[in-house]
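Note to self: keep these together.
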Amino acid sequence: MSPGPTRAALQAATGAIHERLHGLPALAALAAGRLDRAGYAALLRRFLGFHRGAEATLARAPDLAPWGIHLAERRRAWLIEADLATLGAAAGGAGSVPGLAPLPVLDSAARALGCLYVTEGSTLGGRQLARALDGLLPPGEAGRRFLLGHGARHAVLWRECCAALERCGADPGRRAAMLEGAAGTFAAFAAWFEAPGPGAPGPEAQGMAQGML
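Structure:
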């Protein structure tokens, strides 16, 4: 699908920070298939904190139903919880996520759609990352449901998201607010994954990422 004007603007405005995220040590280690089960569980906990925070923030934002978006079918935190259960790693208790990732206030539908552009866009590369777990997990979806995104509904939900972005972004003021929402969400993601705590990369992952940059 060729990007429309709004999605092209979003890609251009967030391209630098998006590229920076690829170099985050734990994500680089995942892409290279170098995480062990404990490292993968720690990374999932970090993802869980971010997506719980994003889902809570979006739930407080103006309703996106007028733009054809129903957030209930796009929630993915529960998929992370299912993957942690498969690994035998509790989402709470020792080594748990230290709360929810703080995201910027989404005080308009346009800003909320900018945030959604980030969270939904993250599903696009997930399937490739899921394949990187072949040496760690048995075949099938178990343990990698989060990375597999929305399953059979993946393509439909992404098209609906892109259509909403273009409709809302046809207005220049709304498009500017959307860009702010996306940039703020990317910045929140980077800050959450760069902070110390559960899911932070170990020395091996840090060395790998430095070699890739």
